[in-house]
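# step 3/5: fold
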Amino acid sequence: MTPSQPPLPYAPVVLKLLKGVIYSDDPHWERLQSYLTPIKDYFGKIGLQVQHYETEGFAYLDQPDSEPDDPTESLPRLVARRQLSFKVTMLCVLLREQLRLFDASDATGRLVLDVEKLRDLIQPYLPVGNNEEKFRREVNDLINQAIELGFLKRRSGDRANYEVRAILKAKIDADMLERLKQKLEADATPT
């Protein structure tokens, strides 16, 4: 058996990217900055792209769709795509709009919303009706799904406040945001 080679100096970053988004508060962020070119080259050899948003403070892997007329073999998907339900999409659009407003306000730091603000945002699209408890459960379920998707992060030690993650800016760009907002407004339930 031959001795194994030591891991690449950026191996921890490669592994973190394979697991998901890396944010600027991650201990590996600086190493990502230092080795960005070789990391991009490494992933490029296997058909993946590093999407790096330095000013926003996050990076993630993307797998471009293969072209239909491309003669090379299409690569299997690293991460299966899943279609979001209308309600989860609605929450993502509302969160993305809050990020847009936060950025336009020249506020510093990160956007944090409490559960009451989230309920207020969602309420026009999920009428409370006669059952307040059902509405609260449904909002909590949507919040938990947004956390699983990485779009919200529960503040440590605080069950009522959530950080809206900047990855939403990459997943829903300004044009898509406007199209989705128009569709949501057309579908909104009158209050």
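# step 4/5: annotate
The longest helix spans residues 86-104.
# step 5/5: archive (pending)
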